[in-house]
Amino acid sequence: MQAVTEWFRSAFAKSAHTPRVSGGVMAYEILVEGREPIEAWSVCTICLQVDRTASVRRRRWRCSDCSSIGDLQRPLPEYLDEHSIDTLDKDLKEWGNAKGVRAAYKMLKSARFKCLITLNRRRQPGAAEG
């Protein structure tokens, strides 16, 4: 788990759009480390940024990364139910082959895909807790 956290920190450290919550802690870091339940979070279906569901429900809320409207946010557990590990892995590979995307954004969204895969693996029956 420590290796995932360190990789995540290094991947996001290079981005100007690092999603942070209180105290400068990164949103995906909270989820990957299991500090909060995923049920309290939503994911942007455009850029894959996560945010607490309570903040997404505010009037006229927009994603701070891609400016999509709140209607494009999905509860994280629901999103993971609809996107299997295989689907997320396939999407990650397709994203890696995308042309004409800034390298920093490509790396950021790739890191988000990897975090979603990690979270989805953890939800699988028989997955080791921790």
What distance separates the N and C termini?
8 Å
Number of strands: 3
How many discrete structural domains?
Answer: 1
SS-based class: mainly alpha
Structure description:
This protein has helices at 2-13, 27-32, 53-56, 76-82, 85-96, 103-123, and strands at 41-44, 50-52, 73-75. Helices cover 48% and strands 8% of the residues. The chain has one domain (2-122). A hairpin with a 5-residue loop joins strand 1 and strand 2. A three-stranded antiparallel β-sheet has the order 2-1-3.
Task: Please tag this protein with its features.
130 residues; mainly alpha; three-stranded antiparallel sheet; 6 helices; 48% helix; 8% strand; globular
Secondary-structure topology with pairs:
Elements: H1 2-13, H2 27-32, E1 41-44, E2 50-52, H3 53-56, E3 73-75, H4 76-82, H5 85-96, H6 103-123
Antiparallel strand pairs: 1-2, 1-3
Helix pairs in contact: 5-6
Task: Kindly summarize this structure in a few lines.
This protein is mainly alpha-helical.
